[in-house]
Automatic annotation (TrEMBL):
<feature type="transmembrane region" description="Helical">
    <location>
        <begin position="107"/>
        <end position="123"/>
    </location>
</feature>
<feature type="transmembrane region" description="Helical">
    <location>
        <begin position="240"/>
        <end position="263"/>
    </location>
</feature>
<feature type="transmembrane region" description="Helical">
    <location>
        <begin position="365"/>
        <end position="386"/>
    </location>
</feature>
<feature type="transmembrane region" description="Helical">
    <location>
        <begin position="183"/>
        <end position="203"/>
    </location>
</feature>
<feature type="transmembrane region" description="Helical">
    <location>
        <begin position="143"/>
        <end position="163"/>
    </location>
</feature>
<keyword id="KW-0472">Membrane</keyword>
<feature type="transmembrane region" description="Helical">
    <location>
        <begin position="275"/>
        <end position="297"/>
    </location>
</feature>
<feature type="transmembrane region" description="Helical">
    <location>
        <begin position="84"/>
        <end position="101"/>
    </location>
</feature>
<feature type="transmembrane region" description="Helical">
    <location>
        <begin position="398"/>
        <end position="421"/>
    </location>
</feature>
<keyword id="KW-1133">Transmembrane helix</keyword>
<protein>
    <recommendedName>
        <fullName>Cbb3-type cytochrome c oxidase subunit I</fullName>
    </recommendedName>
</protein>
<feature type="transmembrane region" description="Helical">
    <location>
        <begin position="52"/>
        <end position="72"/>
    </location>
</feature>
<dbReference type="InterPro" id="IPR036927">
    <property type="entry name" value="Cyt_c_oxase-like_su1_sf"/>
</dbReference>
<feature type="transmembrane region" description="Helical">
    <location>
        <begin position="317"/>
        <end position="344"/>
    </location>
</feature>
<keyword id="KW-0812">Transmembrane</keyword>
<feature type="transmembrane region" description="Helical">
    <location>
        <begin position="215"/>
        <end position="234"/>
    </location>
</feature>
Length: 430
């Protein structure tokens, strides 16, 4: 069975394509920075917004289109294709990166409005489904509602900065609030909400403690709200309170997932390996954030903190947490979705699904280790610059090793995705 255009999986795979291109640009930017030949500043914003808007946000949109109707049990009579929404999301993302690339911030503001409108439609559709559903909305849907509210605030701030309606004196605080509303309020809250269902499904094991998931639901957004208030007020003490609440929330979340994994009798696979590794990096990133804030408590920083250190810190979250999560989710979601759409018979679907899962599990150790060590490599490169110059052999070697690890993991995963999509069901499973 052919896979029609503009279904949720199309959003997810198009977002992955954006993410691949943005990742290559990011690696080129890192190499240029270390070699003393930095790329034009506008390309850094192209890399960031291509990865986060065209890539991560679009994949989350696809995930919401996939999961919300299932959770609310309202998907029987719904359209499965969304061409206008797909065009709006990708047109807005393309205009956004072009606007940053050519430093045309009017185009950036307009593109942000298009992306905001696309997610407004998703939020409105979710609300309508929740009202029609005979079931009480599960906790996951409330996570998504909070995430969409945070995204609306983050995009509105971004649009305001691009349109220059925010006073220059507030730009620094607005940029921090914009970044953390989108990354913490939208991306992290969405992933945490999804993982409470997705990992137990993959492991075929009930969540260890549902009460902890409800506690995290209240504690995580509260910590984010306090943290953002600290950024808005330029108050390190408030930031620390918010960061501490965040640290507690992600530790409880991680404990719940790891306890679920330990109770499972299923052997590990690519999906669970990536998702559990991502959980570790989320905890690490939050505690690193507390250390970065502590570095500025005194009159002078304890350690010098430059561009490379910021790159290492942010990518602990972006590649260690977000990209690992994407690899894990796709390792499960793509085979299941393709099997469901290509094989009509439930009885015959199992062998085909098992074959697709075996493909996704190939080379999984090299894939997980490459992405994890590549993320750690960024931290090593940044740490080396405290004692060695950028042009030194040791720093240059560390950069190229890091580049190789990232590229190996991305290549392995991309090859396997292409392999899975090209593997059709045989006559005995059709």
């Amino acid at each position: 069975m052919a896979f029609p255009a503009c279904r949720p999986l199309t959003f997810i795979m198009t977002g992955f394509g954006w993410l691949l291109l943005a990742s290559l640009l990011g690696m080129a930017s890192l190499i240029g920075l270390v070699r003393g030949t930095p790329l034009p500043p506008g390309l850094r914003l192209v890399h960031v917004h291509g990865a986060l808007v065209g890539g991560v946000a679009q994949m989350i949109m696809g995930a919401m289109l996939t999961f919300v109707s299932t959770l609310l049990m309202t998907g029987r009579d719904r359209r499965d294709s969304h061409p206008v929404l797909f065009a709006a999301m990708n047109g807005g993302a393309l205009a956004l990166v072009l606007g940053f690339g050519f430093r045309n911030y009017q185009v950036v503001a307009a593109a942000g409005c298009v992306v905001l409108a696309a997610f407004f439609w998703v939020g409105r559709d979710t609300w309508q489904q929740a009202r029609r559903s005979v079931n009480r909305p599960p906790l996951n849907v409330w996570y998504y509602a909070l995430a969409l509210a945070a995204l609306a605030g983050g995009l509105a701030l971004g649009i305001g900065m691009a349109a220059q309606v925010i006073q220059p004196a507030w730009t620094g605080s607005a940029r921090l609030v914009h970044l953390h509303l989108n990354l913490m309020g939208f991306v992290t809250v969405t992933i945490v909400g999804t993982m409470h269902n997705l990992l137990p499904t993959i492991l075929q094991q009930p969540l260890h403690n549902p009460r902890l998931s409800r506690l995290v639901f209240f504690l995580l957004p509260a910590g984010i709200a306090v943290l953002i208030s600290g950024f808005a007020l330029s108050s390190l003490s408030i930031e620390f309170i918010g960061g501490t609440a965040l640290a507690l929330a992600v530790c409880l979340y991680a404990f719940n997932l790891f306890a679920t994994w330990r109770a499972s009798s299923r052997p590990g696979d690519a999906a669970s390996d990536h998702l559990l590794t991502a959980t570790f990096f989320l905890v690490l990133a939050v505690f690193m954030g507390l250390l970065v804030a502590a570095n500025y408590l005194g009159e002078h920083p304890f350690l010098p903190f430059g561009t490379l250190h910021l790159v290492a810190y942010t990518h602990t979250a972006l590649t260690g947490f977000v990209l690992q999560t994407i690899f894990g989710a796709l390792s499960h979601l793509v085979p299941v979705t393709l099997a469901a759409h290509r094989v009509a018979s439930n009885k015959k679907r199992g062998p085909y699904l098992d074959m697709l899962i075996r493909i996704m599990n190939r080379w999984r150790v090299a894939q997980v280790v490459g992405l994890s060590m590549g993320t750690a490599g960024l931290g090593l490169v940044a740490s080396l610059t405290w004692t060695a110059p950028l042009g030194s052999v040791v720093v240059q070697t560390a950069v190229w090793v890091t580049f190789g690890l990232f590229l190996t993991s991305l290549t392995l995963f991309s090859v396997k995705l292409a392999w899975v999509f090209s593997t059709r069901a045989g006559k005995d499973t059709a």
